[in-house]
Amino acid sequence: MSMRDIQRMQQKILKMQEELEASQFSGSAGGGAVIITVSGKFEVIAVKIDPEAFNAEDIGELEVMVLAAAKDAFSKATEAQQRMMSSATGGMKIPGLF
């Protein structure tokens, strides 16, 4: 791999990172009763809870669903990040990159 190839790959990775950071990923639980949206920077940017799906006695169930929705959203963001890196590097494993 030449220095020029490495520079092209770096530019491609930077562009893809910017696109990823601008992306949003939503995870849900309870058939959509809880939806959490995270950014490509892994920041929680929205939480939606259907008030019809829960009552005061269901707080424990709500907490479980919030956690499940967050895990789902973070998993989707991680998968997108891994796909992006694999695409940018042609499948090569480069230490220090995600």
Explain this structure.
The protein has 98 residues and is of the alpha+beta class. It has one domain (3-89): Ybab, Chain: A, CATH 3.30.1310.10. Helices cover 52% and strands 18% of the residues. The chain has helices spanning 3-22, 59-89; strands at residues 24-29, 34-39, 44-49. Strands 1-2-3 form a three-stranded antiparallel beta sheet. The longest helix is centred in the last third of the chain and has 31 residues, at 59-89. The two termini are 21 Å apart. The model has no long low-confidence stretch (mean pLDDT 88).
Layout of secondary structure:
Elements: H1 3-22, E1 24-29, E2 34-39, E3 44-49, H2 59-89
Antiparallel strand pairs: 1-2, 2-3
Helix pairs in contact: 1-2
Number of β-strand runs: 3
Mean pLDDT level: 88
Total DSSP helices: 2
Broad structural category:
alpha+beta
Order of helices and strands: HEEEH
- Give the DSSP E fraction (strand runs of 2 or more residues): 15-25%
Sheet bearing the most strands, described?
3 strands, antiparallel
Distance from N terminus to C terminus (CA atoms, Å) equals 21 Å
- Total domains: 1
Global morphology: elongated
Show unreliable segments.
none
| CATH topology annotation | Ybab, Chain: A
- CATH homologous group name: Nucleoid-associated protein YbaB-like domain
Which strand order does the major sheet show?
1-2-3
Helical residue percent band: 40-55%
Radius of gyration: 18 Å
What is the CATH domain class? Answer: Alpha Beta
CATH architecture descriptor text:
2-Layer Sandwich
